[in-house]
Write a structure and sequence with these properties.
Strand order of the largest sheet: 3-4-5-7-8-9-10-11-12-13-14-15-16-17-18-19
Helix content: 10-25%
Number of helices: 4
Order of helices and strands: HEEEEEEEEEEEHHEEEEEHEEE
CATH architecture of the largest domain: Beta Barrel
Largest sheet: 16 strands, antiparallel, barrel
CATH topology of the largest domain: Porin
Shape: elongated
Number of strands: 19
Distance between the termini: 124 Å
Length: 471
């Protein structure tokens, strides 16, 4: 028993002796691995520190960018606030697009007209059967403003068709908007305007529309939105230059007398652009504004009372009685006077009247076919705002007038009765950009013919509809 215990002890000691180096080796390896792990942990800690620093830098950069964006936004808002609201880039229906930073304003509109008549007294086939014709026109305005001291304008006006005009023989025709350019794009106006003495003195020069400086009217001056008949656009008793032409105009509007404006204009009457001072059209107009003079509310009682004089330097022949010889060319000059009044009656009603007279013993110059051979004309009308029936943007217009041939013209064998005109339209606002206007015209004694033996004496009715689109 004792010997077996001894053997077991010796066996255990032997095993311990043999296994001792292996245990010692395993401990060394573990220490090595521990040291390696400690080194890796140290590296991770360093990486964590670097990552934290990088994150801090990123956060600082983000904050800097946010601060910069905030500064830019503040500057932008400051600039916007420092610019008047009417100088910003903006679009207004009917007034176009304003690009204030460069001073440009672009405006365009299109007008479509359908007109018919049951009695076309000048039909090409010689009959008086009914006709229905159409036409369109467009006005494109490009303006460039120069602070508060100047303005340049380019007006393009393409169009096609003449409505019912070429089917009717009248002293004053029925579609002032007709503008058949064959869809070409002509330059209607091209001018520069300069302001002096805080806009008390204005000088305009270039290719001008003479009607913009003579015989204007608040309620009867825009054929695209108001009356279509020519008699209600301008007096037929003005012998205008032959189309828009080279000219210049000066307007004086003193601040000491804010209710007075005086205009003087000079145009090349034959539109030849050659020898431009030999055939002049000269006009002057005085405008009186009673609301400003008497301190009335202009939004309720605004009005303009214009009186004018004009002179046409084209060569004219004198009218003579039938049977007498008419000289081929007599260098007679034409001239005339007129008035154009418009007056608000509250913010619902507006009234207007026109009267014109020209020298009665002259034939209209053959180089200027656009003027009626009459001694005088008158017209009067009423405009009613749709406010009266809760349609604030609608407009009703009614007008009546006559073209008055001279006794000299009658004695020369022409129709001598007064040609009468009546027109009514109703402008309906469909959208902020689109208007539709039914229109009715009635003309009696067309071209002065009032007796059956003189030819056709039928009253002419012209019905139509106008569409106006503001871009």
């Amino acid at each position: 028993m004792a010997r077996s215990r001894y053997f077991i002890v010796v066996f255990v000691l032997c095993i311990a002796m043999f296994n001792a180096p292996a245990v010692q080796a395993s401990e060394a390896e573990l220490m090595t691995e521990i040291n390696v792990l400690k080194a890796k942990v140290s590296e991770i800690d360093q990486l964590k520190i670097q990552i934290a620093e990088l994150q801090k830098q990123v956060n600082e950069q983000k904050q800097c960018m946010m601060d910069q964006q905030g500064t830019v936004e503040q500057v932008r808002r400051s600039l916007i606030q420092s610019v008047p609201s009417d100088r910003l880039i903006k679009y207004t229906p009917g007034e176009g697009l304003e690009i204030a930073p460069c001073g440009f304003k672009i405006q365009a509109d299109a007008t479509f007209i359908l007109q018919g008549t049951p009695n076309a007294n000048n039909a090409a086939d010689g009959t008086h059967k009914g006709r229905c014709d159409a036409g369109w026109s467009s006005d494109i305005f490009i303006e460039k403003s120069f602070d508060d001291w100047g303005l340049a304008l380019l007006h393009l006006e393409p169009g096609q068709g003449t409505g019912a005009e070429d089917q009717l023989a009248l002293y004053s025709n029925v579609d002032r908007d007709s503008n058949d350019t064959g869809s070409n794009v002509p330059v209607t106006e091209l001018w520069y305007e300069h302001y002096l003495f805080d806009k008390q003195f204005t000088i305009t020069a270039g290719k001008l529309d003479p009607a913009n400086y003579l015989d204007q009217n608040e309620y009867a001056f825009n054929e695209t939105t108001q009356f279509l008949g020519r008699i209600f656009r301008n007096s037929p008793a003005i012998e205008w230059p032959n189309d828009n032409t080279l000219g210049g105009s000066i307007t004086i509007a003193p601040k000491a007398l804010p209710y007075i404006a005086v205009n003087g204009s000079y145009f090349n009457a034959n539109n030849s652009w050659e020898d431009v001072f030999s055939k002049p059209f000269i006009s002057t107009e005085l405008t009186f504004m009673p609301a400003k003079a008497f301190g009335y509310d202009e939004k309720m009682w605004g009005g303009n009372y214009r009186v004018y004089w004009w002179y046409n330097g084209l060569d004219h022949s004198k009218l003579v009685d039938q049977g007498e010889m008419t000289p081929d060319v007599v260098k007679e000059r034409n001239y005339g006077v007129g008035l154009s009044f418009d007056q608000m009656i509250t913010d619902v009603f507006g009234v207007f009247t026109r009267f014109g007279w020209q020298r009665p013993d002259l034939a209209i110059a053959s180089t200027n076919p656009n003027t009626a051979p009459c001694e005088g004309s008158w017209s009067a009308g009423l405009q009613v705002s749709g406010k009266l029936w809760n349609r604030e943007d609608d407009v009703l217009g009614v007008a009546i007038g006559q073209v008055l041939p001279s006794q000299h013209y009658k004695n020369a064998g022409n129709g001598g009765a007064a040609e009468g005109h009546f027109e009514a339209y109703y402008k309906v606002k469909l959208t902020k950009n689109l208007y539709i206007s039914p229109d009715l015209q009635c003309i009696w004694n067309p071209r002065g013919i009032s007796e059956p033996y003189q030819g056709d004496d039928n009253t002419i009715f012209v019905y139509g509809v106008r569409g106006q689109l503001d871009f």
